[in-house]
Amino acid sequence: MENASELVHFPLLINTNYTASTIPWRLPSDDIRIPTPTELSWINLLLNLIPSYKKRAENDTSVPDAANKAESFAQRYGEILENYKKDPSCRGSPPNLILLCQIREQILKEVGFRDIFKSVKDEENAKAISLFENVVRLNDAIKDEGARLENLVRGIFAGNVFDLGSAHLAEVFSKEGISFLSTCQNLVPRPWVIDDLNTFKMKWINKPWKKVIIFVDNSGADIILGILPFARELLRRGSQVVLAANALPSINDITYLELVEVISKLKDEEGRLMGVSTSNLLIASSGNDLPIIDLTRVSQEIANLANDADLVILEGMGRGIETNLNAQFKCDSLKIAMVKHPEVAEFLGSRMYDCVFKYTEA
Fold it and tell me: Which CATH number is correct for 118-360, 3.30.1360.120, 3.40.50.510, 3.40.50.300, 3.40.50.10880?
């Protein structure tokens, strides 16, 4: 990650009571030495993900002695999580999701791994690139603006299924993969658990935004078949679009450098995305290296680019729900994600694989 001195507050964030945590893990009155039911459920969720991380690490051919290093990672991280289950104050103060994700990434780096999901990201990006033209043509064929927007939004939800931070979905991907078009067709029916699409649609049709910042999520179908067709439509409607991607790898989230490469492959010889100019498309590093994001710690680059934005979009469960569902902004904001953890579904009172589309006007 960038040096801590280079990480700054996101300027469009209203800081009053902001915390990068949507689901409270404990109350001030709880004994810090006794885990709460919520803490236990989330620690168990992270414990259940260790086997999929270990498997990816074992298969990382870029790292010598990967199997032993993967075992070391699994043991060290597992021990820390088990200790937190026994005593949440074992390392000072009770944990939160950001801390536990930071510890996981730190241990991976310490034992010698940089990007254990690199091969699967490359594979899924290649598959999605081959489907991009067809997905865009299907969207463009919808003449009604509102209907086309809803189809684009459904594409974002369908793409967001590609999430190896979910133990169940990681298993599904390893066995059979997931079809983007069939996922689009089989989304849970509206109304979704949070469904502000009709309000957003009215603003979309009547008053396009001048500058949109999108904090993006996963590689593969998520970014290429979900976000990029949506961003292309914004460009076609006259908006400037900034895509903010991770500075460093985490799970299958796309990084800034990977996103630059993907878009270069999708552009034609004149620098267009299926006929739409990309002169108003910018790609930036968010400064982040986790699958979730604390908006008090973003890159100076994205902070500078955001100053005149009038719409901020946080996409994906980690950024849009788990850490920033309640974040308030000085401009319009949209949190869009699919519910892929039972703990999140329980908190929202939703179904698994329900959809969150939370639009807030400034």
Answer: 3.40.50.10880
212: phi > 0 → left, psi -120 to 50 → alpha, else beta; which?
beta
Three-state SS letters, 109-150: HHHCCCCCCHHHHHHHHHHHHHHHHHHHHHHHCCCCHHHHHH
Q: For residue range 14-29, what is the model confidence (pLDDT) as tens digits?
A: 988 899 999 999 999 9
Element containing residue 230 per DSSP (H, E): helix 228-236
The helix/strand/coil state of 284 is strand
Number of Cβ within 10 Å of residue 125's Cβ equals: 22
- pLDDT of 288 > 80? The answer is yes
* pLDDT exceeds cutoff 50 at 243: yes
Q: What is the pTM of this model?
A: 0.94
Strands 272-273 vs 276-277: parallel, antiparallel or unpaired: antiparallel
Q: How high is the pLDDT of residue 208?
A: 83
pLDDT tens digits, one per residue of 193-225: 999 999 999 999 987 899 999 999 999 999 999
CA 97 and chain centroid, separation: 14
Structure confidence at residue 171 as a pLDDT band (50, 70, 90) = low
| Peptide bond connecting 191 to the previous residue in cis, omega within 30 degrees of 0 | yes
- Give residue 5's pLDDT: 52
Query: Is the Cβ–Cβ distance between 250 and 105 less than 8 Å?
Result: yes
Tally Cβ neighbours within 10 Å of residue 64: 9
**Alpha carbons 337 and 349: distance in angstroms, whole number:** 15
Give how far Cα 306 sits from Cα of 13, 67, 195, 289, Å: 10, 43, 26, 19
Q: Which residues pair with 335 in a beta bridge?
A: 314, 358
pLDDT of residue 356: 98
Place of tokens 């009770």: 94
Domain map of the chain by residue range?
118-360
| One-letter amino acid of 42 | W
